[in-house]
Specification:
By secondary structure, the chain is of the alpha/beta class. It has 12 helices and 20 strands. Helix 2 packs across helix 7, helix 4 crosses helix 5 and helix 4 packs parallel to helix 6. It binds guanosine-5'-diphosphate, 6-O-phosphoryl inosine monophosphate and magnesium ion (MG).
């Protein structure tokens, strides 16, 4: 059976931490979409790691980690990730599998990402500039290069014809992107060897066999539901299906193999990059969340925008994904706020609505707030539900009722150990 874990907001909910914590209960951890736009942070035994392409179960001694067909891989970043893990005695040839059908991010995809963003000017998406959009465009445009292709002798011809197409496109952006392709290509071709250090497989068949053998699989999402290409705050989204359906297309598993859908959210909300964010704070409260929560992008280092929890958006994400269990992260960051606010509806030009409007960027949309009593206690050393302050438990009970879904895990700090099972 497969359980599915995904972020319910605009990313950075703490997926990496929870996958690491839960890996002991699974045989296989499988990433199903996104690429090195992701930054998944794990902390344990005084170490801090940020993973971009590699699934977050990699530190577990026995679990197998799989990069699925829905993922896009930049071999240059992948090589650096492997090097960063070199002191940990991980046998990648055994523990890390890569789908032959995963698409490759070429150096020119990154250049096209930069060109597209520069051309948009103020309307830019705020992309991570990792080449994600252009790579998925070539995938759906049926021009992409897949990991399995590099095993064939003649693949460089296909590479060359794609790169020539990219260069023609880049010629339109000469004033905004300057590049030395030779240098970029040397690094790219060298780094392909790092992919070959892992097993490159027909991953859907591998997963089917694993399911027949009753193995337990955890599908790891990247980004968050509000960055989904269809259901997110388009066009300020990423280019993949970050919601539950993406696990089926990104791994080749059938919907009826999915059992639990674990939805992760922060006790407040953050967003990095452009796009609408109705509960965003521009005041001292927002600054305090950013400071206490160390809200800086794990991939780009950009400051994350912060705001209160948005229940309208969260309910929408729960429904789209069929979430069966919730996990609330970073409750510790809200300690000391006298009042916690949550958004329960939006005020719009059409009146008060409790669904996500088509255009969330409409400046007439305002959050409708509910005040909840805060708590003063430091939660970071607490290890059991019984220790948690009553006002914090009230916040959780309120959310469970509103969201009609149980909160099974409460995280009170970045470390593996700062995790309370309810
Ligand atoms: P991901 O992309 O969903 O894996 O999340 P990120 O790693 O990008 O961002 C989450 C950040 O919050 C990381 O710096 C984590 O170490 C940190 N974090 C995770 N859970 C908690 C928590 O419960 N409390 C605090 N204070 N930090 C947390
Ligand atoms: P994890 O997995 C937060 C955002 C970017 C930008 C938009 C499009 O760590 O939660 P892209 O590079 O994908 O074309 O950028 O999506 N974004 C993320 N924000 N966490 C992420 O990943 C993100 N991946 C992309 O900031 O607004
Ligand atoms: Mg992240």
């Amino acid at each position: 059976m497969v359980d599915l874990l995904l972020g319910l907001q605009w990313g950075d909910e703490g997926k990496g931490k929870i996958v690491d914590v839960l890996t002991q209960s699974y045989d296989i951890i499988a990433r199903f979409q996104g690429g090195p736009n992701a930054g998944h942070t794990l902390e344990f035994e005084g170490h801090k790691h940020v993973l971009h392409t590699i699934p977050s179960g990699i530190f577990h001694p026995t679990a197998t980690n799989l990069i699925g067909n829905g993922v896009v891989i930049d071999p240059i970043i992948f090589k650096k990730e492997l090097e960063g893990l070199s002191g940990f005695g991980i046998d990648f040839s055994q523990k890390l599998l890569i789908s032959k059908k995963a698409h490759l991010i070429l150096p020119t995809h990154r250049l096209l990402d930069a060109a597209s963003e520069a051309a948009k000017g103020k309307a830019k998406i705020g992309s991570t500039l990792k080449g994600i959009g252009p790579t998925y465009m070539d995938k759906t445009g049926r021009n992409g290069i897949r990991v399995g292709d590099i095993l064939a002798a003649n693949w460089k011809e296909r590479y060359q014809s794609l790169v020539e197409k990219h260069i023609r496109l880049l010629d339109n952006y000469k004033s905004v992107v300057d590049y030395d392709l030779k240098e970029l290509e040397t690094e790219f071709f060298e780094s392909l060897e790092s992919l070959k250090m892992c097993r490159i497989i027909d991953s859907e068949n591998y997963l089917h066999e694993a399911l027949r053998a009753k193995k337990k699989i955890l599908a790891e999402g990247a980004q968050g539901s509000l960055l989904d290409i269809d259901f997110g705050t388009y066009p300020f989204v990423t280019s993949s299906t970050t919601t539950a359906a993406g696990a089926c297309t990104g791994l080749g598993i059938a919907p009826n193999t999915i059992q639990e859908v674990l939805g992760i959210f922060k006790a407040y909300t953050t967003r990095v990059g452009s796009g609408p964010f109705p509960t965003e704070l521009f005041d001292a409260d927002g600054k305090r969340m950013g400071k206490v929560g160390h809200e800086f992008g794990a991939t780009t280092g950009r400051a994350r925008r912060c705001g209160w929890l948005d229940l309208v958006a969260l309910k929408y994400a729960i429904r789209i994904n069929g979430v069966t269990q919730l996990m609330m992260m970073k409750g510790d960051v809200l300690s000391g706020f006298k009042t916690i606010k949550v958004c329960t509806a939006y005020e719009t030009s059409e009146g008060i609505v409790s669904h996500l409007p088509f255009d969330l960027a409409d400046p007439n949309i305002k959050a409708v707030w509910k005040d909840i009593e805060g708590w003063d206690e430091d939660l970071t050393q607490m290890t059991a539900v019984e220790e948690l302050p009553k006002t914090f438990l009230n916040y959780i009970a309120f959310l469970e009722k509103e969201l009609e879904t149980p909160i099974k895990i409460v995280s009170v700090g970045p470390d593996r150990k700062q995790t309370i099972f309810k």
